[in-house]
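Justification of computing resources. Each target in the renewal requires a structure prediction run like the one illustrated here; the chain below, 218 residues long, is used simply to show the kind of job we budget for.
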Amino acid sequence: MKVLVTGSSQGIGRAIAERFLSQGHTVYGIDRQEGGIVSERYTHFQCDVRDREGLPELSGIEILINNAGTQNEDDIDINLKALIYITEKYGVQPAIRSILNIGSASAHTGAEFPEYCASKGGVLAYTKNVALRVARFGATCNSLDPGGVFTPLNECVTSDPELFAEIMNETPLRRWASSEEIADWAYFLTVTNKFCTGQSILVDGGESINFHFVWKED
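Resulting structure tokens:
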């Protein structure tokens, strides 16, 4: 199948692109950084997802994965507005089989930077909107909402032993996911899955269900 992955140069996006390539799919990547994937079935377009005039003309995309995102840097423009434009340009069309938006557990908990939470919360609502509109093509649209993942974006906390230990205390499974683990979920939701749609799938090690129950001791 023809697969388009945004934010494909590193982290989750690169792992997803490599996962699809390993299964024989044709993959197109869009990223403002240079591409590092070497494969005859991979084509990289170096451009910003916000640059409507600079985006490539691609037709017949069957799987669209909106992974490009940022944290505390024009979050609403990149994480939400650009995602909407990319989806309308490449995803809402007869050839589409599945659309997956990479969201965040923060959309459910609100526990991060204000604009980041708002942008990812918008993704949840937009996912439902798109699911309704692509259903006529027999296609699905979901969001995959990770908690902590080992990516370059998170190195500022994963490289700090004291801070990371504190984070682990808030994560019931006491670990973070790898990018490859998230890529497995992305592949399942877009290729294996044919019936789940309009849903937001939390993959966060239990982070969002953690709470501190306060009660009077006997």
